[in-house]
Design brief:
The complex is a heterodimer of chains A (305) and B (285). With 305 residues, chain A is an all-alpha fold. Chain A has 13 helices and two strands, in the order αββαααααααααααα. Classes of the chains: A mainly alpha (305), B mainly alpha (285).
């Protein structure tokens, strides 16, 4: 039998739950209306042949859009390009990010200035970053050609952006400039929270700096590194803005990534059904990465980065 | 020992130099280009320091005359649009998001954990997966080319992110504090506004900064949903400088500096909050 005060507590708790739901309601409504509903509509549209202007009636295609995509070489090329962009840029960013974080953490003279400086490329808007590098890569007047010529690395100006491979690598360089600071800043603040006792003990036991870094610091940084890695991978996989400004997908589709292909299909060619199928595939990839991310964050035995 | 320390410091210091060069060289060229004349920029062989540095490009873009290109003439308006959109999104996120974040970390109710994880999940949905239905809906409601459509659609990435960050900050506040207030008869809402929010001010500043920067940076929705001057934002204007036939290079660089100034200054002034935000939420790219 419940005693009266206990009973009163229970209703208080119920009241509390009601307040909780009321507080969450506006956010929930917004998220359902502009995120969940559209993503489900995208899935629905991907089963139809439908155009952006809606002059023809929708035709149900079932998995037709997906099957046609899988048979389209342009689709596979854009997937490979996206994977290349993602692995190369995130890989280099991670290595440089760890190195710079470690450098700041060693507190050389001027480390505060270095840390503040890192914030600048991170805060520069993506489109400005793209415009800046596009001008640097300019074939006739660009700073890259100017610099390489004056230092004697090249004899004559190279039109960097007319070869697909060099265009892609230079887009990656621009992305690295923008994103290394993000990883370096996250990791240096994670480093600052690490206990130093372990390393001191290891130093007393005769472990050198590199051994201490690899066998103590890196493992302790694991979860921070993984979080940065997942976030950057998801972002790199959907890369669009920087490509739009630097190469606009060119030369000859040479930098068309999966997001750029979706944009072209939907808004240039007006194939809304195919575009929806493509964007749904991007969502599925993102969902997988999101699940990994959530699992990393909800590991109870490790601290959140 | 001290000698070894000095050698070490010198070694580490020399390592910072290439990093600083890599950071500042492109920025220096951006700024130099914005204060150079077109003739100097297009001269061969190129030189690095302008012989006739000028603020003419800035004057052209800020007090447009008949000689400037159309994109340059309308640049100021796009700055205003960006400011309107980014600050509206920030305000809505702080208001709506702080209520949700508080409830999600402090009040027991059904499906709380599921919602928190769901919100983290929606934060990662790419814009491209939402854009087609949102475009169809916006054109049906004739919302295209209005700042409102950007404010609403930006919430799709900004709100989950704001909730996530604020939840992380609210979690760090000891529960004892609220318990005392609650025993004294404070209602949930009063506890939130009079106790939690004032204490978590640094967290809110950091959230506001991140949301503002995110909204200022956004390009894809703005590209798709706006094509006229009534809602076009700065990133779209800068992308338009790279026109079909000719690139208006001085205007593009000047616009670039002006577009980068607000976020860079904010980030530098509130450096402390940026670093703590990165640690708390692990964030924007």
């Amino acid at each position: 039998m419940l005693s009266p005060p206990h009973k009163k507590r229970l209703t208080l708790r119920q009241q509390d739950a009601r307040i909780g739901l009321v507080l969450v309601a506006p956010s929930l409504f917004i998220i359902v209306a502009i995120s969940l509903q559209p993503i489900l509509t995208t899935l629905y549209l991907s089963f139809f042949e439908t155009t952006l202007g809606k002059t023809s009636p929708d035709i149900f295609r079932g998995l037709g859009n997906y099957i046609r995509l899988l048979a389209d070489p342009l689709f596979w090329q854009s997937i490979w390009r996206t994977l290349y962009f993602t692995f190369v840029s995130v890989g280099i960013e991670l290595v440089l990010g760890i190195a710079i974080a470690q450098l700041i953490h060693s507190h050389p003279p001027g480390w505060r200035f270095l840390r503040a400086s890192l914030i600048i490329p991170w805060a520069v808007p993506t489109i400005v970053n793209g415009a800046m590098w596009r001008w640097i890569y300019n074939a006739d007047y660009g700073a890259l050609n100017g610099l390489l010529k004056q230092t004697g690395v090249i004899d004559r100006y190279i039109p960097w952006l007319i070869h697909p491979a060099s265009a892609m690598n230079l887009v990656i360089l621009a992305d690295i400039w923008h994103s290394v600071p993000f990883i370096a800043l996250i990791l240096q603040s994670a480093l600052a929270t690490l206990p130093i006792e372990l390393e001191e003990a290891a130093a007393v036991d005769g472990a050198n700096a590199w051994q201490r870094f690899v066998s103590i610091r890196l493992p302790l940084l694991r979860s921070a590194i993984l979080v940065a890695l997942v976030i950057r991978t998801v972002e790199a996989f959907r890369v669009f803005d920087i490509i739009y400004v630097i190469t606009n997908g060119g030369p000859a589709f040479g930098t068309v990534t999966i997001s750029f292909l979706t944009y072209l299909e939907t808004f240039t060619y007006g194939h809304m059904g195919r575009g929806s199928a493509l964007s749904f595939l991007i969502s599925v990839f993102t969902l997988v990465m999101a699940l990994i991310y959530i699992r990393l964050l909800y590991r109870p035995e490790e601290t959140r980065a | 020992m001290t000698r070894k320390k000095i050698v070490n410091a010198t070694l580490l210091f020399t390592l910072t130099i290439p990093v600083l060069i890599f950071i500042y060289l492109p920025i220096a060229w951006l700024v130099i280009s914005s204060v150079s004349t077109r003739v100097e920029l297009l001269s061969v062989p190129m030189h690095w320091i302008p012989q006739n540095p000028t603020l003419k490009n800035y004057i052209d873009i800020l007090t447009p005359g008949a000689t400037t290109s159309e994109v340059a003439r309308t640049f100021k308006v796009t700055m205003r649009n960006s400011l309107l959109v980014a600050s509206s999104v920030t305000l809505i996120c702080l208001l709506v998001g702080s209520l949700a974040a508080y409830a999600l970390v402090r009040i027991e109710f059904p499906f709380r954990r599921t919602m928190l994880i769901g919100i983290l999940g929606t934060r990662m949905i790419p814009e491209i997966s939402l854009v087609i239905p949102l475009y169809v809906l916006a054109s049906r409601l004739s919302l295209l080319n209005s700042p409102l459509v950007l404010i609403i659609t930006y919430l799709s990435f900004a709100l989950p992110f704001a909730i996530w960050l604020m939840a992380a900050f609210f979690e760090t506040i000891p529960t004892e504090l609220e318990d005392v207030a609650r025993i004294d008869g404070c209602s949930r809402l009063r506890t939130l506004f009079q106790i939690i929010i004032p204490i978590s001010a640094p967290g809110l500043v950091s959230t506001a900064l991140f949301i503002f920067l995110l909204a200022w940076d956004e390009f894809f929705f703005a590209l798709i949903f706006t094509s006229t001057i009534s809602a076009k934002t700065v990133p779209v204007a800068i992308a338009e400088f790279t026109g079909r036939y000719a690139v208006d290079i001085t205007a593009m660089m000047t616009g670039g500096v002006l577009a980068a100034l607000p976020p860079v200054l904010l980030a530098l002034i509130f450096q402390r909050y940026i670093v703590s935000g990165l640690t708390a939420g692990a964030i924007k790219g």
